[in-house]
Design a protein that fits this description.
214 residues, Alpha-Beta Plaits, 4-stranded antiparallel sheet, 4 helices
């Protein structure tokens, strides 16, 4: 059976319009709700992104400070290495002259006295002469002048200077000898020379450079 509408047509049309308006309002409300949820979500993401950006900037600033500190440490390390290089270069051929002179005074024979003592140090790498057999590299030279009562006494001095008991020198020889007279006694003036070995070096290089961890 077909339904029969007893309401006036105008009232039915108004009811239909109200339902349409209500549906539109509901749609707009739902759409606004969706927009609100989306906005909250996007704002939350923006806030988190901003927090992450600020945290990253803080980490970057911290890393920059650490890099600056490391740069200072690296500069100090370079200064230390340069200082070690200079000290090493200066003390590589550092002859212990005080000990050497003390040894000279200890080994001078009774009938000989010295009038002049001169010494020079040198880097073996700069020496073009062949090293003395059995003595190793040459680190310098000694030149000594003196007086002996006789030629055998001068020979005794050379043998003493070149003896195995004194490892600081090697290759000793007499360069000149002349006769003279002192207080009515005939004497021999002589000049002698010898090369300095590694035993003549000091140990200051080992004791002057502190150990610094890398």
């Amino acid at each position: 059976m077909r339904p029969i509408n007893l309401l006036p047509p105008e009232q039915a049309e108004r009811a239909s319009r109200r339902r349409g308006v209500a549906g539109l309002v509901l749609f707009i409300a739902i759409f606004i709700g969706i927009l609100a949820v989306a906005s909250v979500f996007l704002v939350g993401r923006a806030v988190r992104a901003e927090d992450d950006l600020m945290a990253q900037q803080d980490r970057n600033a911290q890393l920059q400070r650490q890099l600056a500190e490391l740069s200072e440490a690296e500069q100090l390390r370079r200064s230390y290495d340069n200082g070690v290089e200079q000290v090493t270069e200066a003390l590589t051929v550092d002859v212990a002259w005080g000990r050497l002179l003390n040894d000279i005074g200890r080994v001078i024979p009774d009938r000989v006295w010295l009038t002049t003592v001169a010494g020079i140090s040198q880097n073996p790498e700069d020496d073009e002469t062949d090293p003395i057999e059995g003595s190793g590299p040459i680190y310098g030279a000694l030149t000594l002048g003196g007086v002996a009562f006789d030629y055998p006494d001068a020979s005794t001095w050379i043998r003493t200077l070149d003896s195995a008991e004194w490892d600081s020198v090697a290759g000793a020889w007499v360069t000149t000898t002349t006769s003279s007279e002192v207080g009515g006694f005939t004497t021999v003036n002589f000049s002698s020379a010898a090369s300095l070995t590694a035993d003549a070096l000091s140990d200051r290089l080992e004791n002057r450079i502190p150990e610094v961890p890398q």
